[in-house]
Amino acid sequence: MAMLSFSGFCRLALPLAAATLLITPSMARHHHRLYKGHVPPASQSAPPAQETPATVPVPKPRPTVMDSSGESGAGNRKQDVRQQPSANGESAPQTPAVVTPPPEKPAEPEPEPPAAAPLPPEKPAEEKIPADPRSAEVPAEKMPESETACRERLKALGVEFEEHKAERDAEIGCSIPYPIILKTLGKSISIGSGTELNCRMAEAAARFAADVVRPAVKAEFGADLKVINQASAYVCRPRHGGGKLSEHAFGNALDIASFTLSDGRTIGIGPAPPEKDGKFLNTVRKAACGPFKTVLGPGSDPDHALHFHFDLEPRRNGGTFCQ
Ligand SMILES: [Zn+2]
Question: Distance from the CA of 265 to the center of ligand 1, in angstroms?
Answer without folding.
Answer: 24
